[in-house]
Specification:
The protein is of the alpha/beta class and about 375 residues long. It is built from 16 helices and twelve strands. It has helices spanning about 15-30, 55-60, 75-100, 110-120, 140-150, 160-165, 185-190, 195-200, 220-235, 255-260, 275-285, 295, 300-305, 330-340, 360-370, 375-380, and strands at about 5-15, 35-40, 65-70, 100-105, 125-130, 155, 210, 240-245, 270, 290, 305-310, 325. The strands form two sheets. A six-stranded parallel beta sheet has the order 3-2-1-4-5-6, with helices on both faces. α9 (about 220-235) runs parallel beside α14 (about 330-340). The longest helix has 22 residues, at about 75-100. The chain is globular and about 60 Å long.
Length: about 375
């Protein structure tokens, strides 16, 4: 690649969550004189049941350079494996057409794994954000570390995550600790209460629970029962209103969605999706966030929101003092929600959260600008 050429950075996104937390980073990359942003949408973004969030990306002013179909017609692990393989082939062809230099991925989802594997095998540089974290999820921990081994450049959020990447045998010179991109500009990005009231008539600040529950075990009966328990236990704690957002598309999500739809009379506002500013506004203005979303661990600490984290999906992830961990037992959830309601700290950052001070996007863009794309970068050797 000529020294004067702009590096083509292709961000592959499969969910509303990863797109939302990377928005500020994408803006920095797009404005950088030496970088050219490419954007590929796949996964949940293309499906109406999950809000067809590709439309949100376009409303935000971004050009989607390509889409990669990701069928969600079968909710089984075997179907996910088949989709992942098919997507890898399409992603490799997309990189070739776009002449991508760097494939940028986030986290631990199968879409990110497919994108990273396609990039590595087709000899593109792979850059990975949020590597080195720990979180049980369904297969999240394994996929995250697999992506780390596929990646050539690492952007961990915390010192502990950076240290884990070193222990995985990665060269420390490839590792750039940047903080969590989802923290960048988080307070100003959150929709104000006036906007929330217009969108959700009757919503009362500091009087509602925000529930975001993702599947963990993928079995229909278990996931539906757990969703019902979380809703019932939150209501039993004396919360006045409940706002529920659909889960992601992991196996087991459909039973959760069916539970929410069947019990809609007990839910004040049920949302298939929420734009990033609305989601952050709800998180900032709620009395408590309940469920097992990583946003409750990462972004909520920066917003000072009390969180009741249910189950072990986020087991192992670093967290601040704003998070209370409980099991899927109604009595535990109710007690923890009541305790959270007694804490008046909403809107004040939790100083113990470990995810940085809000300049991740600038640091990521600067590191990408400095990259020398050559065989030395592309040919990895375990560092011990």
């Amino acid at each position: 690649m000529k020294a004067t050429a702009r590096k083509r950075i292709c961000f592959v996104t499969g969910t509303r969550a990863e797109y939302g937390l990377m928005r500020s980073t994408l803006a920095v990359i797009a404005q950088h004189p030496s970088l050219e942003l490419q954007l590929v949408a796949t996964g949940m973004h293309l499906h109406r049941r999950y809000g067809r969030t590709i439309d949100e990306i376009r409303r935000d002013g971004w050009t989607v350079d390509a889409t990669v179909p990701w069928p969600l017609d079968a909710d089984t692990p075997a179907a996910v494996a088949a989709r992942t393989g098919a997507a890898m082939a399409k992603l490799a062809a997309t990189y070739e057409r776009l002449q991508t230099d760097v494939v940028l991925v986030v986290g631990d989802r199968v879409e990110a794994f497919a994108a990273a594997a396609a990039g590595q095998v087709s000899q593109r540089v792979v850059a990975h954000v949020h590597g080195g974290d720990r979180a049980a999820g369904q297969i999240d921990d394994a996929l995250r570390h697999a992506i780390t081994k596929l990646a050539h450049v690492h952007f961990p959020a915390t010192p502990a995550s950076a240290a884990r990447i070193v222990k995985l045998g990665e060269d420390p010179r490839r590792i750039h600790r940047v903080g969590a991109p989802g923290i960048d500009g988080i307070a100003t990005a959150a929709a104000p209460m006036a906007v929330l009231r217009e969108r959700f008539p009757g919503l009362r600040e500091g009087q509602f629970a925000l529930i975001v529950l993702h599947p963990t075990d993928a079995t229909g009966e278990t996931e539906s029962s757990r969703a019902s328990t979380v809703l019932r236990a939150s209501r039993a704690a004396g919360i006045e209103q409940v706002v529920v957002i659909y889960p992601n598309s992991d196996p087991g999500s459909q039973p959760i969605i069916r539970c929410w739809e069947a019990r809609q009379a007990e839910i004040d506002f049920l949302l298939p999706d929420a734009p990033r500013d609305v989601f952050l506004g709800l998180m900032r203005r709620c009395a408590v966030m309940v469920g097992n979303s990583s946003a409750g661990i990462i972004e909520a600490g920066a917003l000072g929101t009390p969180v009741v984290n249910v189950g072990d999906r986020q087991a192992g992830r670093e967290r601040g003092a704003n998070v209370a961990d409980v099991g899927f037992r109604a009595s535990e959830i109710t007690l923890a929600v009541r305790s959270a309601l007694s804490i008046d700290r909403t809107g004040r950052p939790d100083k113990t959260h470990p995810y940085g001070g809000g300049r991740a996007g600038v640091r990521i863009a600067a590191a990408l600008d400095r990259l020398m794309i050559n065989n030395r970068l592309l040919r990895k050797l375990i560092a011990y």
